[in-house]
Design goal:
Number of helices: 3
Number of strands: 7
Helix content: 25-40%
CATH superfamily: RutC-like
Largest sheet: 5 strands, mixed
CATH class: Alpha Beta
Order of helices and strands: HEEEEHEHEE
Strand content: 25-35%
CATH architecture: 2-Layer Sandwich
Length: 152
């Protein structure tokens, strides 16, 4: 099954790949590896802002991480032409804006991780970091980057 068919089966519509907000490119391809810059969470066109453990409820944080994952897929599609070129999601890095006492960063990061497994099956299973940080660009609640093995 193609990834386009899988996305349709999952009722997933990818967002438009976002333009960079600073001096970087969304995706760099080196050999058979794509490095995807950190993506921010846009839900219904609005940036999810705030901090987990303070102003952002847990479920909204999970949804924000999923939104970051959707933007990663959109960036990969724009760079590769087709998500069928994805061979393996190697690693996700999840950064969660959170209070000092918030300890559910892994649960938040699952929003992006579970999306990758849903879309790519075993090829979506990856290594991961889930890190709490005091602040993210534009006040975002979550940011996720990716390293992905690709086919020629």
């Amino acid at each position: 099954m193609s990834i386009v068919d899988r996305l349709a089966e999952l009722k997933i519509t990818l967002p438009q790949a976002a333009a960079p907000v600073a001096a970087y490119v969304p995706v760099v391809i080196s050999g058979n590896v794509a490095y995807v810059s950190g993506q921010l969470p846009f839900v219904n066109g609005e940036l999810v802002k705030g901090r987990l453990g303070e102003s952002v409820p847990l479920d909204d944080g999970v949804a924000a991480a999923r939104a970051c994952g959707l933007m990663i897929l959109a960036q990969l599609k724009a760079a590769l032409g087709s998500l069928d070129r994805v061979e393996q999601v190697i690693k996700l890095g999840a950064f969660i804006s959170s209070t000092a006492d918030f300890q559910d960063q892994p649960r938040i990061a699952n929003g992006a991780s579970e999306l990758m497994a849903d879309v790519f099956g075993d090829a979506g299973k990856h290594a991961r970091s889930a890190v709490g940080v005091p602040v993210l660009p534009l006040g975002a609640a979550v940011e996720v980057d990716a390293i992905v093995a690709i086919r020629d």
